[in-house]
Design a protein that fits this description.
By secondary structure, this protein is of the alpha/beta class. It has seven helices and nine strands; from the N terminus they run H-E-E-E-E-H-E-H-H-E-H-E-H-E-E-H.
Amino acid sequence: MSVHIQKAMLAVIAVFLIAVAACSNSTTPEPTATPIPIATAITATVENLTESSPSLAPVFSVSNIDGENVRLEYLLGTVPVYLVFIPSTTNELDITQLEQIQSRMEQFKEMNAEVVVVVSELPTQVINARDEFALDFSLIADPIDVVANDWQVFDLDNDGESNPASFVFDAHGNLVARLVAAEPNDRPSIDEVLSVIRESLSVGAI
């Protein structure tokens, strides 16, 4: 069965489950958080490959594969955040990026930076990758690309897939670097990301 058909089936199942939950749950849903303003990129290290940057950053409140609730609006404005979108856990480029992030986690932690990776795969596949590569950053499974779509990194090539993408926010919640890959290997190095975070902390200390 192709990936496109699997995702279509997952979408139908998700809609059905949401409908059932809406009928059986009488509690008032939690209000959607107000989008947080972001600034224009201040660095050319990680280039903006689109013609214009969004003026607002969509936020989300979802569970990661460890069952912990990740509320982006709680992170933004408190610590630097490196938000990454990765299409899979099987492609060699995706695996390499996951391993590179993990190899530099101590440096992210030294700067009190939070790493959140959104993967367009089923939770079981993301859990398997977490275990295989000993990943200890927050991983979110996004099999039907809900988060990727909100962040405008889904189906950019009309192929029904999410694109690799990196967003770096400083400790004040400002977007300081953004790269949405035009090509599969078009991704920032971890050195570039760490440099952007380090520079933002230095500017904030002045």
